[in-house]
Amino acid sequence: MQRYWRKRLPLGKGGSTAVTAILINGQKLVVANVGDSRAVICKNGVANQLSIDHEPSREKGRIESRGGFVSNIPGDVPRVDGQLAVARAFGNKSLKIHLSSEPDMSEQMIHDDIEFLILASDGIWKVMSNQEAVDCIKHIKDAHSAAKNLIEEALSRKSKDDISCVVVRFQR
Questions:
Q1: Helices 143-156 and 130-137: angle between axes, nearest 10 degrees
Q2: Buried-state track 68-90, b at ≥16 Cβ within 10 A, e below 16
Q3: pLDDT (0 to 100) of residue 172
Q4: Residue 51 half-sphere exposure, CB side, CA atoms within 13 Å?
Q5: pTM of the complete model beyond 0.90
Q6: Which helix (H) or strand (E) holds 151?
Q7: What is the pLDDT of residues 80-107, one digit of tens each?
Q8: How many CB atoms lie within 10 A of CB 32?
Q9: HEC secondary structure over 94-149
Q10: Among the four 8, 77, 124, 155, which has the fewest Cβ within 10 Å?
């Protein structure tokens, strides 16, 4: 019997951001996020952001207290140690000591005026405002089709970042 041994590969420098939501008893929506993945609800046709984008400039003090720095190169966004454009993430081996992976959490009661929820990565939000995303899909009743439409719209706007999207429709 021939055995194959796979060499263990070293961990890369990459990491991730995330946004998640849970609906409790069909009434209370709890959202948690790390990084720049975002949760947005549509309430009576108006976009409301439920999560916080963790920008390095907003958390500069915490990053510096951990021995890191926030760069502000003209023409670029603020970056942790000149590399990462978010102050919170998980899995970034080389920056882990300067980052936080603690999520921010928010709660939203779901009433009849809440139409849908968008959970998406920054590939959507870098090319669309919250309201543009809501307007792009508010006429689409099928949640899967709405998410697909948002992704296609981000691609048509030449998004260069990762694009992930989930849409959740609420019964009215």
A1: 130
A2: bebeeeeeeebbbbeebbbbbbb
A3: 66
A4: 32
A5: no
A6: helix 143-156
A7: 998 889 999 887 778 888 888 999 999 9
A8: 17
A9: CCHHHCECCCEEEEEECCCCEEEEEEECHHHHCCCCHHHHHHHHCCCCCHHHHHHH
A10: 8
Distance (Å, whole) CA 15 – CA 35: 10
More confident residue, 73 or 127: 127
Q: What amino acid occupies position 152?
A: E
Backbone angles phi, psi at 80, to 5 degrees: -75, 125
Q: Position of tokens 């951001």?
A: 17
Confidence of residue 171 (pLDDT cuts 50, 70, 90): confident
At residue 76, the 3 state secondary structure works out as coil
Task: Find, among 171, 56, 50, 172, the residue nearest to 119 by Cα.
Answer: 50
Give me the domains of the chain, ranges plus CATH numbers: 14-53+104-172 (3.60.40.10), 55-99 (no CATH)
Is residue 102 within 8 Å of residue 131, measured between CB atoms? no
Q: How far is CA 88 from CA 58, 95, 103, in A?
A: 11, 10, 8
With the C-alpha atoms ordered 62, 65, 66, 71, is the resulting torsion angle positive or negative? Answer: positive
Q: Return the structure tokens found at 153.
A: 């719209």
From first CA to last CA, the distance across the chain in angstroms is 62
Asked if residue 1 has pLDDT above 60, the reply is: no
